[in-house]
Write a structure and sequence with these properties.
single chain; 279 residues
């Protein structure tokens, strides 16, 4: 029985290697913290879910990038069952005939217990039954089509399972670190029937509540640019107790950062009175 879910999203590993030292440090911190969580449970009792945008540059990749990402996934695979699905930066949305960036990893590497559920579902929205959880995939390849949750719930074997939505995209009502609130995007109505939704795409940690459904963005794992706050980046841990599921956010401290300062005069610098405005 699954008792814990570790949710991460929006890794955005780039094809150039400029930030790989920072990324290696942050990935190692995450892996160590995830290992500590898993040590208290049997192997099959924890899932890690990566909610899209593992890659950054869509289908333009580099050898260093592929090795970097595959090493991270293989390390996760050693101690935790992992669920992966695509985000908009992992594919070329204008041409689905072009192969996405995640598929080659699964074509070349024999993962023990890491599942690319877009591939499993033939790049369609649908379900992935996993012990006491039914993963409900709103696939970006299928224009986020809503699966028939009501029909799936009628099956006897699924009656006491948790239905967890998997989605990567903007949801109306979500907001960014810059304070921009999404007026365009997917309506949360499509998640009716889910118990919770694990979402990716918006890089700010937040919970959108809709019809008693917690829709959670875990934040980007690492600050991406000056448009994001320095703090608040990390992952979410879901605790499952019977049919009850709750979550907490865990920040990963980072020795690097993109800092924005408010400086009114040279004297501010001389007197150490600069103000960080994206803390």
């Amino acid at each position: 029985m699954i008792k814990k879910i570790i949710q991460i999203s929006d890794l955005h590993v780039r094809k150039n290697t400029n930030r790989y030292e920072e990324y290696k440090e942050q990935f190692d911190k995450f892996l160590n913290q995830a290992k500590e969580i898993c040590e208290n449970y049997s192997y099959g009792e924890v899932r890690t879910v990566i909610c899209g945008d593992i890659f950054h540059d869509k289908i333009i990749t580099s050898n260093e990038q592929k090795v970097f990402i595959s090493s991270f996934l293989k390390e996760l695979d050693n101690f935790c069952v992992t669920i992966v699905y695509s985000g908009n930066h992992d594919i070329l949305e204008s041409n689905f005939d072009r192969m996405g960036s995640i598929y080659p990893l699964f074509n070349m590497i024999n993962f023990k217990n890491t599942f690319y559920i877009d591939l499993i579902n033939d790049y369609k929205s649908g379900f992935f039954v996993d012990d006491n959880i039914v993963w409900v995939l709103y696939s970006i390849f299928d224009n986020f089509k809503r699966p028939n949750i009501e029909e799936m719930r009628l099956e006897e074997k699924n009656k006491n399972k948790i239905f967890a939505g998997l989605f990567h995209g903007p949801i109306v009502g979500s907001s960014s670190d810059m304070g921009f609130q999404m007026e365009n995007g997917i309506s949360p109505e499509i998640f009716n029937g889910c118990d919770v939704v694990l979402a990716g795409d918006i890089h700010k940690y937040q919970t959108i509540k809709y019809n008693n459904i917690d829709i959670v963005y875990p934040s980007s794992l690492i600050q991406q640019n000056y448009g994001e706050n320095v703090s608040g980046h990390g992952y979410v841990v879901w605790d499952i107790n019977g049919n009850k599921i709750t979550h907490t956010h865990h920040q990963i401290e980072n020795d690097y950062g993109f800092y924005k300062f408010k400086i009114s005069s040279v004297e501010d610098i001389e007197n150490n009175k600069e103000q960080i405005i994206n803390r």
